[in-house]
Design goal:
0% strand; 64% helix; mainly alpha; 4 helices; flat
Length: 111
C-alpha cells in the first residue's frame, strides 16, 4: 500500500481537475487565438469574482469571537496581515520596478 493511498477506496487522482483545467487555459491563452475583447471581459470577471469571494469570506468573520480570542489573536491577525501585505508589495517591486526618468537629451550649442 502506498503512503498516499486510501485504505477505504480508490486512490486519489494524480492531478486535481481544476489544476488540469488551469494548465489547459494557460496553453490556450499562450496561443494568441483568444481575442482581446474576451481577455478584457475575463479580466473584469476575475476581479468581480475575487471581490465577491473576499466579501463572502469577510461576512463569515464573527467580531465577538475575534474579540474573545484576546490580545494574542488580534496581534497574530495584524502581524499576518502585515506579512501578507509585505510579501505582496515586495513581489510587485520585483516584477515591475519603479519607472526611471528618461536620459537627458543633448542640446545643440549655438556659435
Amino acid at each position: 500500500m502506498g503512503f498516499f493511498q486510501r485504505q477505504d477506496g480508490p486512490r486519489p487522482p494524480i492531478m486535481p481537475l481544476f489544476v488540469a483545467g488551469f494548465l489547459v487555459m494557460v496553453l490556450v491563452r499562450s496561443t494568441g487565438i483568444v481575442p482581446v475583447a474576451v481577455l478584457d471581459g475575463a479580466k473584469l470577471t476575475t476581479t468581480v469574482l475575487l471581490a465577491a469571494a473576499m466579501f463572502g469570506l469577510g461576512t463569515t468573520v464573527r467580531i465577538g469571537k475575534v474579540l474573545r480570542a484576546g490580545r494574542k489573536g488580534l496581534v497574530l491577525g495584524a502581524l499576518s496581515t502585515v506579512l501578507v501585505g509585505g510579501v505582496a508589495f515586495g513581489s510587485l517591486m520585483l516584477i515591475e520596478p519603479a519607472p526611471t526618468a528618461p536620459p537627458p537629451q543633448a542640446t545643440a550649442v549655438a556659435r
